Amino acid sequence: MVSLARLAFVLVTLLVLLASGDAYAQAGGSEAEARARFEAGRGHARAERWADALLEFQASEALAPRAVTEFNLAATLLRLGRAREALAMVERLEARSDLDDRIASDVVALRAAARDAIRTLAVAVAPASARIEVDGSVIEGTGSPRAIPLDPGPHTIVVTAAGYSEHRATLAADAVTLGVELAPLPAVIVVDASEADARIAIDGADVGLGHVETEVSVGAHVVYVVREGRAPFEADVTVEAGERIVVRAALPLPVAPPPTPLHEEPLLWVGVGVGVLAIAGVVIGVVIATAPQPSGGSTGIVIAPLARF
What we know:
309 residues, four-stranded antiparallel beta sheet, 7 helices
């Protein structure tokens, strides 16, 4: 393993060596400014002001790209703890056709040092579809476990998934494994009945009157609302983790049955029957009252009329 102290020595030596070499031999215009920024970066590097050195080397590279400047950028990034960026830059540097033979061996050493500085964090996560962020950057991919390359030092990791609570933690500088099981958010059913004194039940359990908001398990549930003098309300509801469903229960008045047709009304026929009997009684009475009476003598004996042949 190549130490960072050794790399710092290599970097400063190269800066001294190459700043006065062929890299900017034909300096003029923007190239002259590029060399000035390069020299400024060299001064910051010797004082170990690595953040300032990085800015100067980036400015020099933007004005006049050089392999030596890219090398200095990679080494500075590594000194700043940005090993993954340093390794990516070294790999680009190795592909350049203008790589100076004088730094070729140091490029190899820099690549080895960058790889040694990167650690791999194995994350076992549930659910496997959860999103992982490290220091604010989203890590692509799904599944569990996941291998995440990290720069040296502590990091902030955030794991999220729809319907689950968030997990946030600070990783120690030497952490290489992490297990995260997100807790499902509760499902919520809100029942709003049209009558304030209506009785509300969920899955057969009484939960209150009128308006109720309650946590339930994920899955299917039956909501039943009832009030005396009103038609009952029933609904099947399915909720997911973290979901909040509002059920509005309208309780209308019971529907009155259609009126019975007059000819089917039993009281009508009772009345008709009574009326018929009454009329019949009157007729019979009249007939009896007007019928002729047989005649008789004064003795009070009634002699019936003789029959005729």
